Automatic annotation (TrEMBL):
Rieske domain segment(s): 3-119
Pfam families in UniProt: Rieske (PF00355)
Keywords: 2Fe-2S, Iron, Iron-sulfur, Metal-binding
PANTHER family: 3-PHENYLPROPIONATE_CINNAMIC ACID DIOXYGENASE FERREDOXIN SUBUNIT (PTHR21496:SF23), FERREDOXIN-RELATED (PTHR21496)
Annotated GO MF terms: 2 iron, 2 sulfur cluster binding; metal ion binding
Name the UniProt record assigns to this protein: Rieske (2Fe-2S) protein
PROSITE patterns: RIESKE
InterPro entries per the UniProt record, alphabetical: Rieske_2Fe-2S, Rieske_2Fe-2S_sf
C-alpha cells in the first residue's frame, strides 16, 4: 500500500486540517487537542466531502423538566466535523455519527515518522 505525504507535524496547529490526494482517494488529516486523525473524505450518508466541512464542538440540546428543549449547549470534550452537503455530524476521534453508531466515516491509516505525517488509503 502506498504512503502519501500530508506534511510536517509542525505545519499543523491545533484545530488544523488538510485534505490530501492519495491516488484516486482524498483523505482529511486533522490535528485536534494535539492528536492526529485521518478519515476518507466521503460522508457515510451520501458521499459528500465531509472533511471539508465545519469543525465544531458536539451540539447538545438539554431537555428541561417539562420535556422541552429551550437552548443548545456544546460538549467541550467532543469535536465534530459536519458534512457540508446535508449536515451529518461525525466525531473526529471515532468517526461515528452521534445518533447512529452504525453510521461512521472510513478511517485512513496515519503514520508519523521523523516529524513527517503520511497516510495510507
Amino acid at each position: 500500500m502506498n504512503e502519501y505525504s500530508a506534511g510536517k507535524v509542525d505545519d499543523y496547529q491545533d484545530g488544523d486540517r488538510k485534505v490530501v490526494l492519495c491516488g484516486e482517494a482524498e483523505v482529511g488529516v486533522f490535528r485536534i487537542a494535539g492528536e492526529f486523525y485521518a478519515w476518507h473524505n466521503r460522508c457515510a450518508h451520501r458521499a459528500g466531502p465531509v472533511c471539508q466541512g465545519r469543525l465544531m464542538k458536539r451540539v447538545l440540546e438539554p431537555v428541561d423538566a417539562d420535556g422541552q428543549v429551550r437552548a443548545q449547549a456544546y460538549d467541550e470534550c467532543e469535536d465534530h466535523i459536519i458534512c457540508p452537503w446535508h449536515g451529518y455530524e461525525f466525531s473526529i476521534r471515532t468517526g461515528r455519527h452521534p445518533g447512529n453508531e452504525r453510521v461512521r466515516l472510513r478511517k485512513a491509516e496515519l503514520i508519523v515518522r521523523d516529524g513527517e505525517i503520511y497516510v495510507r488509503a
